[in-house]
Amino acid sequence: MTTNYSLQKRLGLGLTLGVTLLWLLAVAASGLVIRHELDEVFDSALQETAQRILPLAVVEIMNREMATAPQRVLSLEAHEEYLTYLVRDAAGNTLLQSHNANPEVFGDQPQKGFVSTETHRIYGAAAVRDTYWIQVAEPLSHRFEAVREALVALLWPLLLLIPFSLIGTWWLVRASLRSVRAYRKAIATKGAGDLSPIQAEGLPAEIEPIAAAVDQLLERLRRTLEAERSFTANSAHELRTPLATALAQVQRLERDLVPGTQLDKARQIEETLRNLSRLSEKLMQLAKAEGGRLLSETPQDLVPVLALVVDELRRTAQVPLQLDLPEGHPINSNLDPDAFAILVRNLIDNALKYGAADQPVNISLSSEGILRVVNAGPLVPPEKLHQLRGRFVRASSDAPGFGLGLAIVDAIVTGIGATLQLQSPATGREDGFEVVVDLRSTCS
Question: Is the separation of the CB atoms in 50 and 58 below 8 Å?
Fold first, then answer.
């Protein structure tokens, strides 16, 4: 299953991480350049220090009474000595050294030029025909510290760059997608039966073809559905008159026939015509349910509509219809009263056809706007329960009907944005069938 993601979130995080990664790569490259340049500067400092100190050291050694005696240069004040030096003769005897110089760092035999050990960088030079040697050493840790401080100075701005980059990218992407969000909201707020074009302005060039394709699809779907509904409604309407005429003619014929085979055939024809008449009525109801005009502009009280439909059906019902209504509490809803009457009539007809012949049908409407129709009877298998919303699907092939009742109810419920729930067994029972229609979304 594909997980939905936010384009705004993906772009914001992606761009911020991209900028951060590029900054880190730039810092790493800068570190290599800085280290190379600092090595050149520090090597030059070592070389310059040796070339300046060696002539002075030679003069000082030659003027001493004991030229071969080692001497340590005293420090004028306490300080950290990064550069230490050692002056030796050709035999390797130490003649002069800085106050913090460690002879073990310089090795036993002096060498000209640069030499690197595990801990120090050393430069050596000679004077007076290689009679006097000087070696200047610098700890490698000093160079590493300089490079580290330079990199830290480059990384500090990144701590400010990351939040500002995230906020700036987030704001820019959000502003750029404002029209896309408005288009998404326009689609989300459209009703299930609203197939009008979606008003969208200022969409990005990449989204405009999609919006145009969606509008074209909605227009084609609208024309297709209108043609189907028009055919269904017109066919059912045009059939009513000839069916009524044929039914009247058959009834007149029955009065002229004597009891026998011919009368039985005439009665079978009458029953067939009555079924066709009921079918045309169901088709007209289905066309109205799918027509999209299911909500009224002003709220209407559903209680008297429900009571009127139940009283009408009680005249022909073979089982009691028990009605439970909230006392003194109107249920105002934007649902069209005719559509509500069609919904209730089909639910009760369905309960009368498929319910137990000796058990009442319970109809209730709560003060919150939840309609329940419960009937006794055999259980409906779970695998068949979800199929009952389809057209021409019946729970039992033995019961009369066309399998359109719940399809009409489902079309109305879908069109008004309500919910329909089918349960078997019914709540609190071991058998039966229950239909729950949640109309709270239409109630004011």
Answer: no
Question: Cα(22)–Cα(349) distance, rounded to whole angstroms?
Answer: 71
**DSSP state string for 249-288:** HHHHHHHHSPTTHHHHHHHHHHHHHHHHHHHHHHHHHHHH
Residue 401, pLDDT above cutoff 80: no
Task: Summarize the confidence of residues 350-370 as an average pLDDT.
Answer: 88
pLDDT of residue 374: 92
Q: CATH number of the domain at 189-292, please? A: 1.10.287
**What residues pair up with 84 in beta bridges, in sequence order?**
137
* Token representation of residue 295: 């909500």
User: Which CATH number is correct for 295-444, 3.30.230.10, 3.30.565.10, 2.40.50.140, 3.30.160.270?
Assistant: 3.30.565.10
- Read off the tokens for 281: 């009525």
- Helix (H, G, I), strand (E, B), or coil: what is residue 384? helix
Contacts (Cβ under 8 Å, ≥6 apart) of 173: 7, 8, 11, 12, 15
pLDDT in tens, 304-323: 999 998 998 888 888 889 99
Decide whether 189-292 matches 295-444 in CATH topology: no
Spans of all domains in the chain: 7-161, 189-292, 295-444
Residues in the chain: 444
Residues 8/10/15/20 CA torsion (nearest 10 deg): 130
Please name the residues in contact with 182: beta carbons below 8 A apart, sequence gap of 6 or more.
200, 201
Segment 387-393 shows an average pLDDT of 72
pLDDT band at 257; cut points 50, 70, 90: confident
Binned at pLDDT 50, 70 and 90, residue 1 comes out as very low
pLDDT given for residue 372 in this prediction:
92
Contact 293, 287 (CB under 8 A): no
